[in-house]
Amino acid sequence: MKRKELEKRLRLAGCRLKREGRSHSLWINPKTGAVEAIPRHTEIKEPLAKKILRNLGAE
Questions:
Q1: Would you give the end-to-end CA distance of the chain in angstroms?
Q2: In this structure, is the dihedral angle defined by the CA atoms of residues 39, 4, 18 and 28, taken in order, positive or negative?
Q3: Which residues contact 56 (CB under 8 A, 6 or more apart)?
Q4: DSSP letter string over 38-49?
Q5: What does the alpha-carbon distance between residue 2 and residue 48 come to, in Å, rounded to a whole number?
Q6: Which pTM was predicted?
Q7: 3-52: pLDDT as tens digits
Q8: Whole-angstrom Cα Rg for the chain
Q9: CA–CA separation, 53 vs 22, rounded Å?
Q10: DSSP-derived 3-state class of residue 21
Q11: CA 12, 16, 20, 38 torsion-angle sign
């Protein structure tokens, strides 16, 4: 999955960017308080993308 598509799906679910790191970005779901690190690759492997979406409640 492309990183831009993953970020779009997170935004639609109400998640927002908490902060940018050197190799990862931290996203938070304000409703649940869940925080997840997203790697700064243009392509993110499908199992990892699904795990991120599930953990942030965006699935």
A1: 14
A2: negative
A3: 10, 13, 15, 27, 28, 29, 32, 34, 36
A4: EE--SB--HHHH
A5: 12
A6: 0.91
A7: 999 999 999 999 999 999 999 999 999 999 999 999 999 999 999 999 99
A8: 10
A9: 21
A10: coil
A11: negative
